[in-house]
Amino acid sequence: MQFGDLRGWIAHLRQQRELHEVNVEVDWNCELGTITRRAFGNGNGPALLFSNIKDYQHNARCTQLFTGGLSNYSRVALMFGLPKHAPITDLVKAARKAFSGRISPVRVATGPVKENIVTGDDINLFDFPVPQWHRRDGGRYINTMQGTVTRDPATGRMNVGIYRGMIGHKNTIPVLLWRPQNWGQDFAKYTSKGEEMPVAFIYGWEPCLPFCASSPVPPDVSEYDVMGALRGAPVELVDCETVPLQVPASAEIVIEGWISPDPATFEMEGPFGEYTGYFGGDQCPKHKVRVTAITHRNKPIFRGTLEGTMPKMLNENSIMSSVQRAALAWNILERSGVPGVTDVHCPPANNGTTLMIQLKQTYRGQAKQAAAAIWGSNAAHLRYKHIWVVNDDIDIHDYGAIDWAFAYRVNAAEDDIVFFPGTFGSALDPSTRLKFRDTNLYGTGKWTRVLIDATINLDFEPQAHYDGDRYPPMVKPDERDWEQVDRRWREYGFERE
What we know:
Elements: H1 6-15, E1 19-22, H2 31-40, E2 47-50, E3 64-67, H3 73-80, H4 88-100, E4 106-107, E5 116-119, E6 141-143, E7 147-151, E8 158-161, E9 165-166, E10 172-174, H5 182-192, E11 197-203, H6 208-213, H7 223-231, E12 236-239, E13 246-248, E14 253-259, E15 267-269, E16 272-273, E17 279-280, E18 284-286, E19 288-296, E20 301-303, H8 316-335, E21 341-345, E22 354-359, H9 366-375, E23 386-391, H10 399-409, E24 417-425, H11 439-442, E25 445-454, H12 479-487
Parallel strand pairs: 1-2, 3-20, 4-12, 22-23, 23-25
Antiparallel strand pairs: 2-3, 5-19, 6-9, 7-8, 7-11, 10-19, 11-14, 12-13, 14-19, 15-18, 16-17, 21-22, 24-25
């Protein structure tokens, strides 16, 4: 699906009745974030367009903020061109196809994002209605749903990721920059050469941009190529004004700048209401972006989002991660030669930290092979801490079915629960001791990962009185009885299911 730009996406959501427009005055300071939290609900709320933000009315440079474009499975389906109520597995399969495809971007001379060019003393990040999303946030977080563009100085590959950043001064953005992330790897190459790293931030374009930017695409692949595959057409890019990078020609807003490795340039950043549902990253000096230019469309729309997932409180990252991380894991399993995978699911409540794998088991150790393949991939950095593997008779989208398999197919004494200690993990996970969350010392966090093998144990002897099966038969009615009752269901006075 191609929507052209953010405005085309918003128009499509309006036509599909997936958009709620807030026209009464709303304070950018906590009120807007709280409205967003309540509207997102449990992944069943609308996208939101705020058009009357305190201090940003009338002649302000930017007067509107859009959020929640991908905070519901229905809108992820629309992004893929699928029916709104398509099953989650269909979304995962669509994402698998996009992640495996490549359509290179094309360069164009100019575009709407060049309608306004701001440089020098005129740069003022406070011209944009960036919210204080949470009262305890360390500041106004401008980088929550942007595309962060960097380039590998050796290969020329452009990376587009989503990494957090807040407004420091009117022309600085202190950021959270970790070595294992793709832009962290780019940054290390510039640092080794004694150079600053150029960076550009994209706010507002088609939904494929944040979806792909927040996915762990392999380091040697540009997310622009994957976006092209997802939308079925190349992304049109224009040159930035002050950095050697390219951005979508029809983006709403682009901020350009440079990041220095010199600790003397660092600024205070954090904490931030993180994807874990907790505030993460203590306030301390961190790398900053020195902004050198802002380009934007006439009457631009700022794109941001509320982070932080809690029970019965989901958000865009929750829903996107549920689809992205399942699709990437399934592709990893396939590339690694793990056979028999029939479905993969990441529950949205934990942003892909837990992975469910359903497979047709044909040999002993298949579940352990699957977990090893996932944990050995670069996609496992901040996700896949806990992996469940079940047989293909268990619906991995049903917590009750998962719990039943855990209760009656898991025996810790039979090595059905496996620990994999000392792996790279998320420094934002509060269950990790604070000393192991020191990214300056370790580069990342430290996890002990867990596999729960809830498949039928093939070490058990086949039993003659179970007709050669290892487990006793389940109590589901015989198909002949089921068909008879199903046929007479209305006769019994029940409504047809």
